[in-house]
Amino acid sequence: MAATSKNTSRSIVIIGILFFIFGFVTWLNSVLIPYLKIACELNNFESYLVAFAFYISYLVMAIPSSRVLKLTGFKNGMSAGLLVMAVGTLIFIPAAMSRTYILFLLGLFVQGTGLAILQTAANPYITILGPIESAAKRISIMGICNKVAGVIAPIVLGAIALKNADELVERLDTMSAAQKVEELDALSGRVITPYIIMTVVLIGLAVLIYFSALPEIETDSEDETLAAANKDKTSILQFPHLLLGTFAMFLYVGVEVIAGDTVISYGAAQDIEFATAKFFTSITLGAMIVGYLIGIVTIPKYISQQKALKISGILGIILGIAAIITDGVVSVLCVSLLGLANALVFPAIWPLAIDGLGRFTKIGSSFLIMALSGGAVIPLIYGLLADNLNPQMAYIVVIPCYLYIWFFAAKGYKIR
């Protein structure tokens, strides 16, 4: 038992490092959106194609990712995912040199593809690594690793990419066409060194994971009770609670990305300087860390996973309305505090949705990974509303999303 506990702890540490990488790469988008909006001269809708290109890869690549994992197993699949991500970060080098927006988007899509493989492996892995009743607690620990990286990433890249951005935006209007091209090329080149470093780190981690002692976990077998319950099941589509959970995950990732990736641009729209606004995503992710800590302490000892999910849905509705009816810093902080409402949603949806899948666990996990494409679609809807209404009223899109999350927690997960 002591040896098993030690192996489990070591596995949690390794997976925790991977979740740190997820967070660092994912939450760079919050800086890339306003940065590329300036560098590539984009409108709101076009700038949110950053999120679209990154998250749509989950929809496209989740099923292929599950097939990769069937061939490679979890550990080698994670290593392969890191290498694919390294290819994506490498594409940023020619993209920055040529200031070509489509190349930036391609790099983001490839990074998302690598993350699809990683997440298809890592999320069920950490869920199955211990009792299902405490899965939300383990995923919360992973969430802290993810969001600590998310706090650091926008500050680091923001300090490089958005340095003196306010002054540059003001000066661009007074420049000749040739001067503007020169300044924007220089701005574009700022990301070359950070992405070279990231490429080297990702390749190094891929090698370390490949040679690590991370154990394989069997997900294709079932105990007798589960096998009896699933004996007539021939398709993943015969598990309604998974399908409802997949849609809840789709909406959740959409509102999580909105809370983290729009808040810098929204702060600027509320006349807050980029020098200050670049910290708002870190506040969002700091709020998520607080939520994860609450989950670690309270689940399952004081509240169940589904009750935590109910509370999260209600809190999201309240903060979404508050962001719309208040102004200035208060409104922006309400958007950032959506991080608190979002913290326990992923940790609760995942185990509730894959509970009882047995031999269908890998394909079920792929469905949930596909649902991460909500981060591609929902922010685009926000961007469209921001262009046609205003950036503040556009937050109306989060209200029905949190209502559905509450429904899944109240009833959806019970439908078998």
From TrEMBL:
One of its GO terms (cellular component) is plasma membrane. It is found in: Cell inner membrane. Signal peptide: none annotated. GO terms for molecular function: D-glucose transmembrane transporter activity; galactose transmembrane transporter activity. It is a multi-pass membrane protein. Its main location: membrane. The keyword Membrane applies. Keywords: Cell membrane, Membrane, Transmembrane, Transmembrane helix. The chain crosses the membrane at residues 12-36, 48-65, 77-95, 101-118, 139-162, 192-211, 241-259, 279-299, 311-330, 336-354, 366-386, 392-410. Pfam families: MFS_1 (PF07690). One of its GO terms (biological process) is D-glucose transmembrane transport. It comes from the Bacteria. CDD domains: MFS_FucP_like. Coiled coil: none annotated. Residues 11-416 form the Major facilitator superfamily (MFS) profile domain. Intake of glucose and galactose. Belongs to the major facilitator superfamily. FHS transporter (TC 2.A.1.7) family. NCBIfam families: gluP. This is Sugar MFS transporter.
